[in-house]
Specification:
about 240 residues; alpha+beta; 3 domains; four-stranded mixed beta sheet; three-stranded antiparallel beta sheet; 11 strands; elongated
Amino acid sequence: MGAHNFTETSKVTDPDVAYRQLVEQALHEYGSDGYNGTISTTHGFRVVSKIPMTAIAAEQYAYEHSERCEKWGQCEAVAVGVATQTKSKIVTFNVPIDDSAHGLRVDVAMIAGAASMPLGSVTGFEVLTSAPKFKTTVTPPGPARKVWVTNPSRGVEYATKAAALAAARSTAEQARVVSTSTAVPAVYVQPTVSATVSQQTVRTPEVTVASRLVSWKVKARLDFVVGDKLEFDHWLFYGMAAS
């Protein structure tokens, strides 16, 4: 048996009544099983913010803080409000990327931070453009070393000339073709087979070129509340439900 995040909403203004009604509704719909995966598996709640925040801000807050709620423990509640008037602004910013990242997730908290605006005032956003930025680096060659090789060769390197000569001799001897034909009584041999030996200077690696994702440039439209006042609309409950 495990646990998972949940969210529930209620328009009842009294959070105690709202919580009780949500629990009763969950028990009615899903039964009294202690692992039914609903708010009924929590034991009480605590109000985190009585000051209303926008719906998108409340959802982001719940996403970031649900993990601090414990299975069988209390859930949390924040007040959610609606704005009578909003405005928009364009914000452009760079998001640093670590070496393990393969993409970018833009959320409301990121954009609010870039705009130096309280998260609770944001009513919505839209990413207009986004572009990755890469940094290319060139690593110089490694230390030089002398090796002996043969041709034809299988890519084998030899530390001494004598070892390369022995390999070339073996290659030449094995390359001779002796064939017989039952149709025509004859024997065919390859009269001349050769293998060359040469010395090379090798650097490992020769050169390394790497392109690394370092940041992501984002341009977004941010919608926000004019003034600080939001009219209460509902409670958002979130936490961990036993399942």
